[in-house]
Amino acid sequence: MLLQLRRAILILCLAGGVIGGVTYAAEKPNIVLFLVDDMGWQDTSVPFHNEVTPFNRRYRTPNMKKLAAAGMKFTQAYACSVCSPTRVSLMTGLNAARHRVTNWTLRRNASNDRRHPGLEFPKWNVNGLSPEPGIERTIHATALPAVLKRAGYRTIHAGKAHFGAVGTPGADPRNVGFDVNIGGHAAGGPGSYLGTQNFSAVWRRGDRVWDVPGLEQYHGKDVFLTEALTIEANKAVDRAVADGKPFFLYMAHYAVHVPFAPDERFYQKYRDAGLDHTEAMYAALVEGMDKSLGDILANVERHGLTDNTIVLFMSDNGGLSAHGRGGKPHTHNKPLSSGKGSAHEGGVRVPVIAKWPGVTQPGSACNRYVIIEDFFPAILEMAGVEDFQQVGGVMDGVSFVPLLRQAEGDPNDRALFWHYPNNWGPNGPGIGPSSSIRRGDWKLIYYHEDQRYELFNLAEDLGEQRNLADENPEVRERLASQLGQFLVSVGALMPLDKRASRPVSLPGQRNE
Ligand code: CA
User: Fold this and answer.
1) Which of 137, 323, 328, 420 is the most buried (most CB within 10 A)?
2) Same domain, residue pair 166 and 255
3) Where are the alpha helices (DSSP H) in 15-162?
């Protein structure tokens, strides 16, 4: 009787609990969030299109293939078109129009908007994410790892952080809830990928602000950054396991962002296959990233934790294509149009794979769309955190756990929104200050410079070649109105039209 009572109490204790005001389920799965920087939708041997493309044949990502065979791939997953908005949405569950970190961040109080002849850009949150209130030009929010830490996780950051500007609390991943920081800081790219160059920008006479922090034990050694981060991430996982802690590993690679460098382990075979120097370096960066995925998952397997570890794979924006690549610009994400920095699919559609043992069906595909802010509530649901409230009490993301369970629902009924009242720099299809909405098969883009619309039917025209805005005024106006209402509801900032000396009109309220 006493034994039974003890057992009942033990079961009750294991069934859940409350730590720091957050309720958690007892059986906490480990979570690996593997985020690649600037990786395009086609930069993999896993086909995310409905056919195998020439790019799928070019890139070699055997470990992604293995992961996709064991889990579910999302063929219509979206991020923002550049780094910081995506990363802040991922960390907060908020849409970029609401958190206002709409462009990439680096220095305190300094905007990285390229000057524009007709527009002046609004006072967006150039200092990024802040865990504390009262820091100027930041979004004050509770970041994902802080919630997971309170729920009992060992939270491990490895690689590129890029959450907050230099000299603000958000610059250090440990201030936003990570127990461990390996190589992360304010900058959104590495000084160098090479240990022989100390991962520093000195080789290119670059600003030392880009130097990857930590990792001194690899300085002067012939080791690629991707590999060094992987080795250190695995050690941090080993320590979490030894300490009996569930872990959240945020493996956020600097790869495959510029400045490219030849990863000699893989480079030559792409040259032999006929790629030019730049494209061979890029393909080798992709394969090195894939090796890292394999090494991380092999370490999880070595600990016997594969069945209790959720793996999420994703990229933070589309593949770079406007400059810095070999071959013709704006073609590197085909069949998608354009690339990083663009509102077109090449800029925002990213490869996503999710594997949740016992939940996702092996080798399955989800064709419903999801967006970056959805990861926050989805990951909390996976971790069994039930009663979390973001600062301000709102959450834009919607958990995609029902999709992982293949629950029924109205396909593509919700609208997705992007807002980029900023100037990245290069020109090209879909590149420029804009707001956009996707609903069902339709996508409407509103360009702030000239209040022009592009309307595409993605089911019929994935490559966004036929602008139907004039042919379908009814769809155009309906979506424009919904987009305008959303921007008002989240307090979105619009650029100033310098010629008219007033803010650019909201979509659906165009000045005729
Ligand atoms: Ca990026």
Assistant:
1) 420
2) yes
3) 54-58, 62-70, 83-92, 96-99, 144-150
Q: What's the CATH number where 486 sits?
A: 3.30.1120.10
**Do 339 and 320 touch, CB atoms closer than 8 A?**
yes
DSSP SS3 for 194: strand
Q: Which range among 12-21, 133-142, 216-225, 397-406 shows the weakest confidence by mean pLDDT? A: 12-21
Q: Judge whether residue 387 has pLDDT over 80.
A: yes
Residue 511 lies in a domain: no
Indicate the pTM of the whole model. Answer: 0.94
Residues 358 and 476 in one domain: no
Q: Is residue 308 part of a domain?
A: yes
Q: Quickly tell me which residue has 């992007």 as its tokens.
A: 418
**CA of residue 82 to ligand 1 center, whole Å:** 5
The reply to whether 158 falls in a domain is yes
Same domain, 223 and 274: yes
Which residues are close to ligand 1, an ion, with C-beta < 5 A?
Answer: 37-38, 83, 316-317
Q: How many whole angstroms from 314 Cα to the centroid of ligand 1?
A: 11
**How far away, in angstroms, is 225 Cα from ligand 1 center?**
17
Domain of 275 in residue numbering reads as 28-404
The tally of domains found in the chain comes to: 2
The answer to whether residue 467 sits within a structural domain is yes
pLDDT for residue 409: 66
- Whole-number Å distance, alpha carbon 38 to ligand 1 midpoint, is 4
**Contact (Cβ atoms closer than 8 angstroms) between residue 495 and residue 113:** no
Q: Which of 337, 370, 404 is the last residue of a domain?
A: 404
- For residue 383, the SS3 value is coil
Distance 286 CA to ligand 1 centre (A): 14
Cα–Cα distance between 339 and 79 in angstroms, integer? 12
Cα–Cα distances in angstroms (integers) from residue 181 to residues 172, 290, 301, 444, in the given order: 8, 22, 23, 40
- Paired with 119 in beta bridges are 497
The Å distance, Cα 306 to ligand 1 centre, comes to 29
Over the stretch 265-285, which tens digit does the pLDDT of each residue have?
A: 999 999 999 999 999 999 999
**How distant, in Å, are the alpha carbons of 101, 143, 177, 499 from that of 131?**
14, 7, 9, 38
- List the CATH number of the domain containing 358: 3.40.720.10
The pLDDT assigned to 15 comes to 42
Nearest residue to 54 via CA among 44, 64, 65 = 44
Identify residue 325 by its one-letter amino acid code.
Answer: R
Q: Which residues have a Cβ under 8 Å from the Cβ of 272 and sit 6 or more positions away? A: none
